[in-house]
TrEMBL record:
It comes from Rohdeia mirabilis. InterPro entries: DHBP_synth_RibB-like_a/b_dom, Ptyr_pPase, Ptyr_pPase_sf, Sua5-like_dom, TC-AMP_synthase_SUA5. Coiled coil: none annotated. GO terms for molecular function: ATP binding; double-stranded RNA binding; L-threonylcarbamoyladenylate synthase; tRNA binding. GO terms for biological process: regulation of translational fidelity; tRNA processing. SMART domains: LMWPc. It catalyses: L-threonine + hydrogencarbonate + ATP = L-threonylcarbamoyladenylate + diphosphate + H2O. This is L-threonylcarbamoyladenylate synthase. Its EC number is 2.7.7.87. Pfam families: LMWPc, Sua5_yciO_yrdC. It is found in: Cytoplasm. Residues 18-202 form the YrdC-like domain. Belongs to the SUA5 family. SUPFAM superfamilies: Phosphotyrosine protein phosphatases I, YrdC/RibB.
Length: 366
């Protein structure tokens, strides 16, 4: 039986003793293993940039080899400079953090490269006020593993952690019994990846819907500009997501469509639009035009008008609460001129302008 350790109060809600926080920060700063509460299970935390502390944590758990450790942060702002924190990850963070979602993102934030696995780096924001207060007070990164010996079930309260680990810990925050008693959902998300590595409180269906984006493009007749925008955008999304030309965007929560404010249903794409897309290896031959009905547009997260007049028409047709979803396709403020009646060269120039605008928008989608 390990020697005793006295837990100190680190409540989820209400006032937190700053002396308790300072003492736990000091224990982490000097390389100690500290037990902390979260809303899922209790964790064992160490300073992430201290190799000896990480080894101490693994030895405390009885792990014979390097295990994936999760970087815990007080809020998503800590990830602002990490390239792996993509638009999809930001949407998931906005919806589920603080909360029981661990995301394994591509690469590693600066300084934590030694802790990254082949799959990337795990990170989450716990939904426990005391834990977040402690993390916010640490001037160094903190990684956490569940509070249990290797192969045993994670522990759910401070008394159990104290009984199991005792003086092997340099500190132990008591934040009450873990509310959920179930480990977080672990999702690997990055280029070519959207995989639930560990089931938890969140389902894959809701994660896919949150991470993805439904994107619509609107022009006048839905035979030239918006169909080319739809086709080019779908191709760029597949490439950015790493799913190949035949990949199903819907599997990752994405949908792309096009409409016309004065479209007659079922009209084919113009011949020059079909040729222009074919020159890029893309097929527009089966397109049929669709009217921009408000009830259809209202199901999309992002709605792009090809010109300012299209934007005005869309905003005027939709309920005011949906106006924020509507924008001009080109973020630089330029209209995409209608090539209808023009030469193939005009269509090629139009496609190039659309493609340049899409390149500027892509990072906001994936």
């Amino acid at each position: 039986m390990p020697d005793a350790i006295e837990p100190v109060p680190l409540p989820d809600t209400g006032p937190i003793d700053p002396d308790v926080v300072r003492a736990l920060v000091t224990a982490l700063a000097t390389g100690g293993v500290v037990g902390i509460p979260t809303e899922t299970v209790y964790g064992l935390a160490v300073r992430a940039d201290d190799e000896a502390a990480v080894k101490r944590l693994l030895a405390t758990k009885g792990s014979a080899q390097q295990r994936a450790l999760t970087w815990h942060v007080p809020d998503a702002g800590a990830l602002a400079d990490w390239s792996g924190f993509t638009a999809r990850a930001r949407r998931l963070a906005a919806r589920y953090w603080p909360g029981p979602l661990t995301m394994v993102l591509d690469g590693a934030p600066e300084g934590l490269e030694p802790l990254a696995s082949a799959a990337g780096s795990g990170v989450r924001v716990p939904a426990h006020g005391g834990a977040r207060a402690l993390l916010a007070a640490c001037p160094f990164p903190v990684v956490v593993s569940s509070a249990n010996r290797s192969g045993a079930a994670p522990l759910l309260d401070a008394a159990s952690v104290a009984a199991e680990f005792g003086a092997e810990l340099a500190g132990l925050g008591d934040g009450g019994t873990a509310r959920s008693g179930e480990a977080s959902t672990v999702l690997a998300i990055g280029t070519g990846r959207f995989e639930v590595l560990r089931e938890g409180l969140l389902s894959r269906v809701e994660l896919v819907r949150t991470a993805g984006r439904r994107i619509a493009f609107v022009c006048t007749g839905n035979t030239c500009r918006s169909p080319m925008a739809e086709t080019l955008a779908a191709d760029k999304l597949r490439r950015a997501l790493g799913i190949g030309a035949a990949g199903d965007l819907g599997e990752l929560g994405f949908a792309v469509a096009s409409f016309g404010v004065f479209a007659a249903p079922g009209a084919p794409a113009s011949a020059h639009a079909v040729t222009t897309m074919s020159e890029r290896g893309l097929d527009l031959s089966r397109h049929g035009s669709t009217h921009a009905a408000p009830e259809a547009l209202s199901t999309f997260d992002e709605i792009y008008g090809l010109t300012r007049s299209h934007v005005q028409a869309i905003v005027g047709a939709l309920p005011p609460r949906l106006a924020e979803r509507v924008a001009l396709l080109d973020p630089r403020g330029s209209d995409v001129a209608d090539p209808v009646g023009g030469s193939l060269l005009d269509y090629r120039a139009c496609a190039e302008q659309i493609e340049a605008a899409l390149d500027l928008r892509l990072a906001d989608w994936v």
